[in-house]
Amino acid sequence: MRNLNGRWHTTVLVLALFVSPCFAQNRTAGTSTGWKGIVQERLPLYGHRNWIVVADSAFPVYAAPGIETIVVKDDLPSVLKYVAGAISSSGHVRATVFLDKELQFIDERDYPGVSELKKQITGTFAKEQVFSIPHSEVMDKIDEAGKTFRILFIKTTGRIPYTSVYMRLDCGYMSEEVERKIRTAMDEAGNQQAK
Fold first, then answer.
1. Which of 52, 47, 99, 90 lies closest to 72, judged by CA?
2. Would the pLDDT of 8 be above 60?
3. Span 6-20, mean pLDDT?
4. Cβ atoms of residues 131 and 96 within 8 Å
5. What is the model's pTM?
6. What are phi and psi of 166, to 5 degrees?
7. Does residue 49 fall inside a structural domain?
8. Of 24, 75, 125, 167, whose Cβ has the fewest other Cβ atoms within 10 Å?
9. Between the CA of residue 120 and those of 49, 75, 76, 140, what are the distances in Å?
10. CB burial readout 64-73, b (16+ within 10 A) else e
């Protein structure tokens, strides 16, 4: 009887470990403080190679366990402004921003307000932070990152396609220039040793 109880306890524990992440990864956070609290909880944990995506309302939910999706009842520009500000003030990370290239070709006649939304999105970041690439390439980057690193998707009330903003987090206290200097020095040291 004791052995059977031990197995039952182990089985329940294993099931709890498998089931709980499924419920924790995708949730709805309709209140302003709810989603902002999630951002504030996740941001200190995240580092370079994590992603935060502020998405339009049709963005799909991913099945991968490291990808968390929350739904908010706020518009895309206000959510983006908050998230970008939180990243900027964190000190330990900075954002490299990817936009769908298709956004440049959406016509105001098809989606009234898209021109203003584009300005709000790009105006949130420094010009050198933002890269426009085809949607399929952005999704490839997300798919690849999601295999190893955590990603937070925040679905907004936005209803204009290709307006999702993909923020790959990088080290906030080291610039790309410093990273290049380090790599160059390493290469030169390797070449010296090879001689």
1. 52
2. no
3. 48
4. yes
5. 0.80
6. -105, 115
7. yes
8. 24
9. 25, 12, 10, 25
10. eeebbbbbbe
Q: What is the C-alpha to C-alpha distance for residues 154 and 164, in angstroms, rounded to an integer?
A: 10
Q: Which string of DSSP letters, residue by residue, matches 98-125? A: EEEGGGGG--TTTSTTHHHHHHHHHHTS
Number of domains in the chain: 1
Q: Residue 57's domain spans which residues?
A: 24-189
pLDDT digits (tens, 9 = 90+) for 52-68: 999 999 999 998 888 99
Does 3 fall in a domain? no
Joined tokens for residue 164? 């999702």
Number of H helices, E strands in the chain: 6, 7
DSSP state of 62: P
Question: At residue 106, what is the residue type?
Answer: I
Q: In the predicted model, is pLDDT for residue 157 greater than 70? A: yes
Gap between the Cα atoms of 169 and 140, Å rounded: 16
φ, ψ dihedrals at 21, nearest 5°: -65, -30
Report yes or no on 9 lying in a domain.
no
- Residue in the block written with tokens 């970008």: 84
Q: Do residues 157 and 74 touch, judged by C-beta distance below 8 A?
A: yes
Share of the chain above pLDDT 90, in %: 73
User: Residue 96 in contact with residue 167, Cβ under 8 Å?
Assistant: yes
CA distance 141 to 162: 16
